[in-house]
Amino acid sequence: MDNVETIIVGAGQGGVPLARAFAGAGKRTVLIERTHVGGTCVNEGCTPSKTMIASGRVAYLARRGADYGVETGPIAIDMARVRQRKRDIVESFRTGSEHRLQNTANLELVRGDAAFTGPHSLQVRLNGGGERVITAPTIVINAGERPRPLDLPGASELPVLNSTSIMELEEVPAHLLVIGGGPIGLEFGQLFRRLGSAVTIVHRSGQLLSREDADVAGTMHDILDEDGIDILLNATPARLEGAPGDLRLTVRLADGERNVQATHLLDATGRLPNTDTLALDTAGVTTDQRGYIPTDNQLRTNVAGVYAIGDVRPGPKFTHISYDDYRILEANLLRDGDRSIAGRLVPYCVFTDPELGRVGLSEREAREQGRAVRVAKMPMSSVARALETDESRGVMKALVDPDTDRILGCAILGVEGGELMSMIEIAMMGDLPYTALRDGIFAHPAMAESLNNLFFAFEHE
At what angle do helices 183-195 and 46-63 cross, to 10 degrees? Predict the structure, then answer.
C-alpha cells in the first residue's frame, strides 16, 4: 500500500495542471490515467476535431475561389493526409504534456484503471499488469466522459460512428447521416459536407442547438441549409437496418415515417460519465441518476477530502470550465483561497463556420426568469469587415439590463464569433455598461468595430 498526500484520477485538462500544482507545493502526488494524458480535449475532442475542421475550411475556400477572383480548379480530398495531420497534432500536444509530468518532482503518473476501496483508498489495475493500492487524504476525481452508445433497434448489429471513431475514417463517406443536432452533430456534419459527403442531420427537437434562442438557431439552420445539408427536425429515429456501407434509418415525423439511406451513421446524441468503474459506492460518494457526481460550489463531494472536477460533474462540459475547476481547487487547497463556481460566466463556442460564440443569458432564459431586457440585434451583413471578406452570414445578438445598462449575455453567430463574444465577456467581467462598447473607438475596419453598431441596434426602439 502506497500512502501519498494527493491522488488525482484522470489526466484531463483539470487533472494535469492540478497534479503539477500539488506536486510543486511539495506534496507527494499520484496522477492515475488509464489511456492518454490530456483527456478528451487533446485526444478525442477539441484538438483533433478543430484540426480537421480547419481542413474543411480550406476545402470550402478553395471551392469559393472564383468568388474572390481566384481560379483554383477542381479540388481533391486526401482523407489519409487530413487524418495524419490530426494525429500528428494530437501526438505533439499529448507528448508535450506527458514530458512535463515526467519532469515534475513529487509527481508519479500511474497508468491503469482505478476503483475506490474506501473513502480515501484506490486500487489500480495497472496497464502493464499487477495492482497497486494507493491512499491519500485528498482525492480529486477528474474521470471525464465517453460517447454514449446509440440506443436504437438494430444499432448494435451495424457500424455506428461516434465523435471519436469518425475522426479515424480512411475515406470521405458518400453519405453521412448524423443523429443529433447539437454542437457535435453540426460541427462534424458541416466538416464532412465540405470534404465532399452528402449529409443528413436528424434531430428530435423543433430546432437545432436546442439551448439557443430560436432566432439564432434558425440562422444556423439557414447557413447549414445553404451549405447543402439536409436537416430533419421533430424527427425521432425508430430503427436502423441494412448492411455496412448501405444503412437505412427509419425516422418518425409528424406526417408519418421516412427512410433515410446513408453509407455512414454518426451518433451525436450524448455522452456518459466515466464513473461506472470507480466503485464510488464503496467510498460513499453519491452520484445523480445519470452517474454524474454532484458537488458544492467549491467542488467538494459528500465525502470529506474527495472532490470532483470537469465533465464528471453535472453542468457545463467544456475544457475551459475544467481548467477553471483546477484553478478553484488550487487556490482553495494550496493558497487558503475561497474561490467558488457560483456566478461564474460560462462562455462557449460551436465551431461551425461561421462559428457561434455564446456567454451569459439567452433571451429565452432571461424571459423565463421574468427579467426585463433590451435586445440588441444586427445581421452580419451589416458588418463592413464581413462584407469585405465575403463572410457575411450570421447574426449578432446581445441582451442589456434596462435599469443598469449592464450586458447580460450575447450570442455572436458569424466570422470570428468566438473572439467577438470574448470581447463582450471582458466587458461583462469588468462590469462595464453597454455604452462603453457602443462609444468605444475600435480600429477600422476590424470586426471589433461591429460592436459600435450592435449596441445602437436595439429592437423595437
Answer: 40
Residue among 197, 145, 163, 172 nearest 49 (CA): 163
Contact 208, 238 (CB under 8 A): no
Distance between CA atoms of 180 and 176, rounded to whole angstroms? 12
Provide the b/e sequence for 264-283 (b: ≥16 CB within 10 Å). bbbbbbebebbbeebbbeeb
Residue type at position 403: D
Contact, 395 vs 376, CB < 8 A?
no
Tally of helices (H runs) and strands (E runs) in the chain: 13, 22
Q: Hey, what's the cell of 305?
A: 477530502
What are the C-alpha distances in Å from 346 to residues 122, 173, 319, 372, 428? 33, 35, 11, 21, 12
Q: Give which of 331, 339, 283, 341 is closest to 310, Cα–Cα.
A: 341
pLDDT tens, position by position, 56-110: 999 999 999 999 999 988 999 999 999 999 999 999 999 999 999 999 999 999 9
Indicate the pLDDT class of residue 1, thresholds 50, 70 and 90: confident
- Given a contact cutoff of 8 angstroms between Cβ atoms, the answer to whether 30 and 7 are in contact is yes
| 3-state percent breakdown (helix, strand, coil) of the chain, nearest 5 | 35, 25, 40
The order of strands in the sheet holding 107-118 is 2-3, 131-135, 121-126, 107-118, 29-33, 6-9, 138-141, 306-308
Residue type, 216: V
Rounded to 10 deg, the angle between the 183-195 and 214-226 helix axes is 20
This prediction has a pTM of 0.96
Any catalytic annotation for residue 99?
Answer: no
For 424, the 3-state DSSP assignment is: helix
Instruction: Identify the H or E element spanning 219.
Output: helix 214-226
Single-letter amino acid, residue 150 = L
pLDDT tens for each residue of 217-263: 999 999 999 999 999 999 999 999 999 999 999 999 999 999 999 99
Q: What is the DSSP string of 371-420?
A: ---EEEEEEGGG-HHHHHTT---SEEEEEE-TTT-BEEEEEEEETTHHHH
Active-site residue, from 120, 221, 444, 460? 444
- What are the helix (H) ranges across 292-375? 319-334, 363-368
Mean pLDDT of 426-436: 98
137 to 118, 158, 301, 337: CA distances (angstroms): 11, 46, 14, 19
- Judged by DSSP in three states, 160 sits in coil
